[in-house]
Structures are given as structure tokens and as C-alpha cells.
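Re: that backbone. C-alpha cells:
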């Protein structure tokens, strides 16, 4: 109905075509129980429908931006509608022009109808089709024959078997011929759409024509069942259905003017048509009564004919498959020629030309299996992200290429240089002398400090020596630990792996492994720390805080597990769980406490989440599923997450556009806090606790900062929340300075949701 109403808006006369169909159906249905003294009334809507269809075809042929083939098609259908109108008039004369109503179809009427069919067939066959091979057309011809044989048998069996009684009423076999011809048109249209396409003619328009012709054929085939009602005719419904389909198809064509033509899409559905036809014929053969030998013979001959056609089609398919196999064999030789090139591409980095991770692992595995002493160094360019941001990715790529060249030149034949991804490289030195290895790695650092690169590059290098039983993964892990230790010491240096570092790394790895299972085991939970108004201490909201209760270690501090989650990428899964759990809790409070529910529920969002593609859509999905009121949510982000323009800042702006409030957490600790407010849209500033209860709070400078922050937040129409309030004196000082929101241990530690609910219930009970 939506599609029909859309068409009606483009052609205000479509409803008249629909009314013609309904009028014909109602007239015919009532006529089965009531004798019409003036049957001509039932024929009156038919010419109107034909005129409307012709008008729609003419307008479609005159539409702008259609190709010549499409324009020609609609012109032909316009001519067909004119001929159709003549046939309808002649049919009316035959039906009601005599002394008594009849279903007679005269020669003149038949001539008009056959002219309509001829013009329509010509229009269809002249449509341009997609390019097909000779074998394709042969299969198409066989499929068409199969469908035509099956359709003809079914039309004969269910409609035309009683042709003698029908001919005695209609006066000729013309009506039978018309029905069969319309069936042929329907079949050809369907096959045309399914196989040969229709050039730039709108596919939906052709489908509407196909459906209309099929339905019109079905209704027209009911004529033998109306021989006892001479004042009725199946044309009273079949003609309006056909004209309405033409009108809708032409309107659909006009709606698609200017749209690019649909590309040909291969489909396997046409291939099942022959087998469905055979199955239907077999079912009809089995259901035909054996008392009628002539009919049984016709069914058997038709079934045999269909079977032979399907066999011929299968022979063609087998021949095509054989040709296809020959073509495949020819391509195998070409594929072998490319194998060497593909192998090189699969084992080397496309940007720098050095080995990639695949070749590195293979090379290390061979050396370790052979028992060769191996030294592995992992190298990471310091501040490479800053280089990319300041000078552009093209400069960054040139730097990577230059680093690769220098590494290759310095290492030479002594080892293998590989790029692991990003700005991380690995060096494999099969050198038994450790001092010789130190000398090579020292030269590597000297080469990277040279100034001839696009920008000066320094690197952190971590190195380790193989041990019995090592694997490539273990060697790289130890080198990675040493490399991060070099970065922690300031970078631009070489650091060798130490067993004590291994213990620390192993401990961190074990904790990371446990963290991977924490959500599934139900070890993660949320606490909620109240945010209060000053000076009244009335509740103003809560902040959701993630906690981890380890089965052996007890409560693990967020300062310990959050960095592990950031490094491993688990922060994405944890952040998603926090967001959904907090939203579900907020929605539950809304349902239970209404306006007394926490006015704000703050939820922390990590930098990794903000930079993740699809994060905004994920937030919208969670809001939809939980049903939480977005006006009660406050998403907290850190300054470092949006310090540079990029996906994270774009995500924040889109979240604001979607009516979600944003808070800037730990404000004042970053390097560009004030300038950040110029391009990052926020609603709330959460002043870091170091200015409230830390060492900065006790200094004169810290006090001045706290007092002046509230001034410019008011001018910028931002809310300010003071974090880490621990004493009543601090709360009084903040209130005097103008702060109206605060949170900290003075008011409440983070508590479970049940305690928040108990407080809310207590407030309600006092009313």
C-alpha cells in the first residue's frame, strides 16, 4: 500500500484505475446472484481505464532523461492502448449490441485484440538486452519453450478443456486464442525480466507489467466458468487489472527519471524454472483421471516433451562446464607465473620493502630449530604520532622508508630487518658475539640520529638473546618488554632485557589474562559516587565507577587494571559493558523513582572508545535498547582523548549533536586545557582533585586557579564540578568561590546501586 500511495502521488489519476478494478470485481460478484437488465453498465469503466493507461504511457514516453529504447517502448504501449480501446468498444458491441446479452467475441473484436498483442510483443522484443553468449541464448530459448509448454498445458487443462460448450456461447474460438496469447505475453515478459533484462527501462515497471499480465490472464481464463451468465464477462475484471498495471508501470517509470540504470545482477533463480515445470507437469499427470485416455495422452506427451527439453538443456550446461574447465586449466599456468611475485608480496612490507611479520617468524623459527644463537632487537620510533600529526602521513611514510634503508644498510648481511607494523621494526642478528651485536645496535642508533631523513628520528630499542626452548613469540615478547623500558627511561637509547623485567611483565600478563575473563566470570561491577549541590549537599547526580574483584587478589585498583586494558584493547569491551550497565541502571531508577531519580548519571568513556569507528552508533543502540532518558546522561572524557583533531573529537561533536551532554574530566592537568575549550564542545568541567585536596590546593597559585576557574566557566555557560572534596573546610571554600557542584569522600565514597536506591527510598518516605 505504501508503494501504491507513492505512485498515486505522482499520478493523481491512479485511484480511478483502482476504482475501475473494484467496480468490475463487485459488478461480476453481484452478477453471479443477480440478473442485470442493463449489462452495459458493467462495461462503462473499461474504456476509462484504457484511456488512463494510454495517457500514463504517453507521459512516460515524453519524460526527460530517458534513452531512446525506453522512450520507444512507452510509445508502442501508447499505440497498444489505443488499439485496446478499439477492442473494448468492439467487445461491448458484441456483448450487448444484440437482442440478448452474450459472451460472443466477433472477428472485428478479435482483430483489435490480436493487434494489441502484436504491438505489445513487438515492444517487448525490441527492448535492448544485456550482452549474452550464444550458449546463454540457447539455454534461454530452451527455458522459454519449457515454460510455454507447461503454461499452455495448464491453461488448457484448467480453462479450455470445455471449449465446445464455451464456443457455443461465444460463437467462435477467438476468445480462447486471446487467452492463450495473453498467457504467452505474460510468460515472455517474466522471462524477459529474469533472463535478458530490459536495458534502461525501469525494472520495477517491467515487473508490474508482468504481474498485471499474469493476473489478467488468470482472470480471463475464468470465462468458461461464466457461460451460464451471458450478461457477465471475465473481461469486466481482466481488462481493468491489465490497464491498472500499465498505468502503475508507466508511473513507476516516470518516478525513476534521472536515476542511474540498474546494473545486471546474475541470479540462479532462473535455473530452477525447467525443473519446477517438469515437477508441476508430473504432478498434473498423476492427478489427471485415467478415465479420459485423450487427456492422459496429452499429459504424457507434454511431460515427455518437457523432459527432452530439460535433457537438452543439461547437455548444453555440461558442454559449457567442459569449456570452463579448459579455461581454468589455461589460467593455472598464468597463476604459476605470478606465484613468485605473490610470495614476495606476502612476505615483505609493501611500503618499505623489508621483511614483514610472516617472514620474520619463519626466519626466527628456522634459526631456533637449528640451535643458532640469535639476538632480537625491537625498535620503535619515538613520537612518531607527533611527526605524523605535524608533518602529515606522507612525511611519516618517507620517514619509515628512510629508517628501513638505514637499518638495512647498517645491519647488512649480518641479520634480517623486518617491519612489524606502524613505526615498529625488528632486527634479527644471528651473531654469536654479544659485543659485536652491541656494536651493530649502537651504529643503528647513530644512523637513525642523522639529519638527512625527512625529519630527525630517534628510537627506543629493546634487545634480548635467545635461550634454549625459545619460540619466536617469546623472543619478540622479551624484546618488546625491553623496548618499553627504554621508552620509560626517556627513549633514544638501547635497553637489554633483564630477568627482573620478565617477572614484572609476566605478572602484568597474568593479570591481563585474568582481566580477559573478568567480565564473563562476573567479577566486574559498578559503584556510584554521589555528586552533590553546594552548600546544601543535596544529591545532584552520581558517577558510575568500574571496579574489579579478583577471586584471589581481592579488589584490584583501577589504576592497575585500566592501563592493562588500554594496552590490550580490552578497554573497548569493558567500556561497552560499563556504558550499557550504567544506562540500564539509570533507566531502572527512572522507572522506579521518576523525577526523584538521579538527575545526572556520569559515565566515563576512554580515548580508545571515542576513536573507534562506529562508537556513536553503538551509543545510540545502547540508548535504544535500555530506554534511558539521554538528558540524564553525562559522558565523561579526558583532555588527552581530544587534544588532537581526529576521529575522537569528531565523535564528541556528533554525540553533542545527538543531544548528549559531555564532561571534560580531570580538567586542569593537561597541557592545553584552556585552548581545548575553543574547539571541543563540552557542557561540564570536572576540576581535578589536585586543585581541591592535593598539594596544589594548599598553594596560593592553586587557590587562585580554583577561584578563577569558576569565573570563566560561568561566562562560557558551563557547569563546574569540584572533584576530590575530603573536608568540610574545602567544601566551604569551594562554595564561597562560587562552585555549586562537588563530589568526594566528604559526601560519600563510591557505593553500590542498592545504597543509592535506599537513599532515594528514604527521601520518598519522608514526604
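Recovered sequence:
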Amino acid at each position: 500500500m505504501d508503494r501504491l500511495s507513492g505512485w498515486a502521488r505522482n499520478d493523481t489519476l491512479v485511484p480511478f484505475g483502482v476504482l475501475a478494478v473494484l467496480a468490475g470485481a463487485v459488478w461480476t460478484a453481484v452478477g453471479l446472484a443477480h440478473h442485470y437488465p442493463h449489462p452495459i453498465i458493467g462495461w462503462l469503466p473499461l474504456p476509462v481505464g484504457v484511456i488512463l493507461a494510454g495517457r500514463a504511457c504517453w507521459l512516460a514516453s515524453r519524460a526527460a532523461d530517458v534513452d531512446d529504447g525506453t522512450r520507444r517502448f512507452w510509445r508502442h504501449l501508447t499505440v497498444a492502448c489505443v488499439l485496446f480501446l478499439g477492442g473494448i468498444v468492439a467487445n461491448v458491441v458484441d456483448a450487448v449490441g444484440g437482442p440478448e446479452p452474450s459472451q460472443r467475441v466477433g472477428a472485428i473484436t478479435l482483430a483489435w485484440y490480436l493487434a494489441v498483442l502484436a504491438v505489445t510483443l513487438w515492444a517487448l522484443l525490441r527492448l535492448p538486452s544485456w550482452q549474452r553468449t550464444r550458449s546463454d541464448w540457447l539455454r534461454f530459448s530452451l527455458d522459454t519453450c519449457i515454460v510455454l509448454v507447461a503454461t499452455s498445458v495448464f491453461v488448457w487443462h484448467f480453462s479450455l478443456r470445455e471449449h465446445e460448450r464455451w464456443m457455443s456461447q461465444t460463437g467462435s474460438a477467438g476468445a480462447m486464442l486471446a487467452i492463450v496469447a495473453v498467457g504467452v505475453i505474460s510468460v515472455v515478459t517474466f522471462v524477459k525480466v529474469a533472463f535478458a533484462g530490459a536495458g534502461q527501462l525501469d525494472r520495477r515497471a517491467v515487473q508490474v507489467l508482468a504481474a498485471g499480465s499474469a493476473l489478467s490472464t488468470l482472470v480471463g481464463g475464468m470465462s468458461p466458468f461464466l457461460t451460464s451468465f451471458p450478461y457477465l464477462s471475465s473481461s469486466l475484471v481482466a481488462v481493468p487489472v491489465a490497464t491498472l498495471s500499465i498505468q502503475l508501470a508507466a508511473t513507476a517509470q516516470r518516478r525513476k527519471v534521472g536515476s542511474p540504470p540498474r546494473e545486471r545482477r546474475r541470479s540462479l533463480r532462473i535455473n530452477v524454472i525447467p525443473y519446477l515445470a517438469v515437477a508441476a507437469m508430473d504432478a498434473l499427470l498423476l492427478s489427471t483421471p485415467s478415465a479420459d485416455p485423450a487427456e492422459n495422452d496429452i499429459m504424457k506427451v507434454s511431460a515427455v516433451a518437457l523432459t527432452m527439453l530439460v535433457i537438452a538443456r543439461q547437455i548444453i550446461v555440461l558442454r559449457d562446464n567442459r569449456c570452463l574447465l579448459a579455461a581454468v586449466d589455461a589460467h593455472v599456468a598464468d597463476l604459476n607465473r605470478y606465484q613468485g611475485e605473490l610470495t614476495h608480496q606476502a612476505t615483505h612490507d609493501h611500503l618499505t620493502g623489508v621483511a614483514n611479520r610472516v617472514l620474520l617468524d619463519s626466519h626466527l623459527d628456522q634459526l631456533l630449530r637449528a640451535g643458532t644463537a640469535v639476538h632480537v632487537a625491537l625498535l620503535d620510533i619515538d613520537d612518531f604520532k607527533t611527526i605524523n600529526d605535524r608533518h602529515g602521513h606522507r612525511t611519516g611514510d618517507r620517514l619509515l622508508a628512510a629508517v628501513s634503508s638505514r637499518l638495512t644498510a647498517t645491519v647488512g648481511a649480518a641479520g634480517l630487518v623486518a617491519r612489524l607494523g606502524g613505526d615498529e621494526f625488528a632486527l634479527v642478528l644471528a651473531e654469536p658475539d654479544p659485543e659485536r651485536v652491541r656494536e651493530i645496535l649502537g651504529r643503528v642508533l647513530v644512523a637513525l640520529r642523522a639529519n638527512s631523513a625527512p625529519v630527525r628520528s630517534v628510537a627506543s630499542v629493546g634487545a634480548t638473546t635467545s635461550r634454549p626452548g625459545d619460540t619466536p613469540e617469546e623472543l619478540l615478547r622479551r624484546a618488546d618488554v625491553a623496548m618499553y623500558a627504554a621508552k620509560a627511561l626517556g627513549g633514544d637509547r638501547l635497553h637489554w632485557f633483564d630477568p627482573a623485567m620478565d617477572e614484572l611483565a609476566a605478572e602484568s600478563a597474568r593479570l591481563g589474562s585474568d582481566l580477559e575473563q573478568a567480565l564473563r566470570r562476573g567479577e566486574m561491577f559498578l559503584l556510584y559516587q554521589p555528586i552533590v549541590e553546594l552548600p546544601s549537599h543535596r544529591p545532584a547526580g552520581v558517577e558510575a565507577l568500574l571496579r574489579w574483584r579478583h577471586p584471589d587478589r581481592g579488589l584490584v585498583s583501577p589504576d592497575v587494571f585500566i592501563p592493562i586494558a588500554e594496552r590490550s584493547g580490552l578497554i573497548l569491551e569493558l567500556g561497552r559493558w560499563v556504558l550499557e550497565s550504567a544506562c540500564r541502571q539509570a533507566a531502572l531508577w527512572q522507572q522506579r523513582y521518576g523525577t526523584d531519580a538521579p538527575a545526572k548519571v556520569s559515565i566515563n568513556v576512554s580515548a580508545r572508545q571515542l576513536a573507534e569507528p562506529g562508537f556513536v552508533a553503538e551509543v545510540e543502540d545502547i540508548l535504544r535498547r535500555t530506554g534511558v532518558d539521554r538528558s540524564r546522561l553525562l559522558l565523561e572524557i579526558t583532555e588527552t582523548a581530544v587534544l588532537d583533531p581526529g576521529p575522537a573529537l569528531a565523535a564528541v561533536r556528533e554525540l553533542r549533536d545527538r543531544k548528549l551532554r559531555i564532561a571534560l574530566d580531570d580538567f586542569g592537568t593537561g597541557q592545553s586545557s584552556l585552548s581545548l575549550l575553543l574547539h571541543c564542545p563540552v557542557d561540564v568541567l570536572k576540576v581535578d582533585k589536585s586543585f581541591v585536596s592535593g598539594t596544589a590546593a594548599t598553594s596560593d597559585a592553586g587557590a587562585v586557579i580554583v577561584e578563577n576557574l569558576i569565573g570563566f566557566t560561568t561566562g562560557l555557560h558551563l557547569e563546574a564540578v569540584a572533584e576530590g572534596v575530603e573536608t568540610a573546610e574545602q567544601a566551604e571554600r569551594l562554595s564561597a568561590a562560587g562552585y555549586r557542584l562537588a563530589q568526594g569522600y566528604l559526601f560519600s565514597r563510591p557505593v553500590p546501586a542498592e545504597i543509592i536506591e535506599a537513599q532515594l527510598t528514604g527521601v520518598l518516605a519522608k514526604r
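The chain is about 60% helix and 10% strand. The CA atoms of residues 431 and 437 lie 7 Å apart.
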